[in-house]
Amino acid sequence: MGLPGEEGLFLDLRPAGTAEGVKQRFPPPYFLAFLDGAKARDKAGLMAEIAPALKFPSYFGKNWDALLDCLRSLPDEVPAGGYALAILNSAGFLSASAKDLEDFADVAGEARAFLREKFRADFIIILL
């Protein structure tokens, strides 16, 4: 599957990758979060799953602009040397809408560029 977004934003470890392997590959100082792609088949599901996974504040607005704001603010909320979001059951991730996947990749790519420039911290999405 060709994924939208900048090169290196998505790390596809299917089918052989495991959660334990990801933990070993992204140890601290990375902040590693897991999300169930089967529960994030659409934008609403993504917003419901990503907020607790990445420890977003309770006022998270559950839209693309709010997602970008919260991703850019990760170092303020969860200080780390880098951020990795591992998506379990990734075949279902945003499978209900190619547009939602494209929008997510755009937001994540913009946040990644910001985090790299301002905090020298990486952001990567791992597909399992």
Percent in helix: 40-55%
Instruction: Please tally the helical runs, counting DSSP H or I stretches of 4 or more residues.
Output: 5
Instruction: Tell me the β content.
Output: 15-25%
Oligomer: single chain
Radius of gyration: 13 Å
Q: Which CATH class?
A: Alpha Beta
Strands side by side in the biggest sheet: 1-4-3-2
Helix-strand blueprint:
Elements: E1 10-12, H1 19-25, E2 30-36, H2 43-53, H3 64-72, H4 74-77, E3 82-88, H5 98-119, E4 122-127
Parallel strand pairs: 1-4, 2-3, 3-4
Helix pairs in contact: 3-5
Provide a descriptive summary of the structure in words:
- Helix content is 41%, strand content 18%.
- With 128 residues, it is α/β, with parallel strands linked by helices.
- It has one domain (10-127): Barstar-like (Barnase, Chain D), CATH 3.30.370.
- 29% of the residues are buried.
Q: Which descriptors would you attach to this protein?
A:
41% helix; 5 helices; Barnase, Chain D; 128 residues; single chain
